[in-house]
């Protein structure tokens, strides 16, 4: 299968990439229910209530979007400030990077005197490239979740205003 065949066979939905990372997978219902109850300011509200009432359905969608933002933000924070933090990187982290054949060929053909130093420098560069690539990806997922939350909040607010039995005069 050549590149053109792979491109044609690629899924039409680009969000499939995010699903691979688990950041756009459905949020556990219990967590969504907790947020849903907070939005409605009703700790006893049952999850089934969103089926029958439009405002509650929009509140549920808002709660799901909020939970997605929380999950994406937590993944981004973990990457930037958790175990993979930039200031916690050691030389051993760079040594775990396996260089591909073209990179190694380039080092050998460069006729450098210190091949080990050139390999170490290439490994470090590859490590940081992957680190920031993942950081950018997580940032994109967080922004997509924030956009979804903003839209859900606007729809919920609009439905609340439309449903107000005592509109301001």
Explain what the structure shows.
The chain has 169 residues and is mainly alpha-helical. It contains 7 helices and no strands. The longest helix has 49 residues, at 115-163. It starts with a helix and ends in a 6-residue tail after the last helix. The mean pLDDT is 79.
Determine the number of helices (DSSP H or I, runs of at least 4 residues): 7
Distance, first to last CA: 67 Å
Largest sheet: none
Which of globular, elongated, flat, extended, rod-shaped describes the shape?
A: rod-shaped
Assign a percent range to the helix content: 55-70%
Q: Name the average pLDDT.
A: 79
Binned strand content: under 5%
Please state the structural category: mainly alpha
Global Rg: 24 Å
Order of helices and strands: HHHHHHH
List segments where confidence is low: pLDDT < 50 over at least 5 consecutive residues.
none
Number of strands: 0
């Amino acid at each position: 299968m050549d590149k053109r065949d792979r491109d044609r066979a690629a899924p039409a939905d680009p969000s499939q990439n995010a699903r691979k990372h688990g950041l756009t997978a459905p949020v556990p219902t219990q967590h969504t229910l907790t947020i849903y109850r907070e939005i409605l300011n009703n700790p006893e509200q049952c999850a089934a209530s969103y089926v029958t009432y439009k405002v509650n359905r929009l509140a549920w969608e808002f709660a799901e979007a909020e939970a997605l933002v929380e999950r994406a933000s937590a993944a981004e924070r973990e990457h930037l400030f958790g175990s993979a933090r930039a200031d916690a990187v050691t030389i051993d982290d760079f040594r775990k990077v396996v260089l591909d054949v073209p990179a190694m060929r380039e080092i050998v053909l460069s006729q450098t005197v210190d091949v080990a130093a050139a390999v170490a420098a290439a490994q470090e560069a590859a490590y940081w490239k992957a680190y920031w690539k993942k950081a950018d990806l997580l940032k994109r997922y967080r922004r997509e979740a924030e956009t979804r939350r903003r839209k859900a909040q606007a729809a919920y607010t609009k439905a609340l205003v439309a449903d107000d039995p005592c509109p301001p005069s």
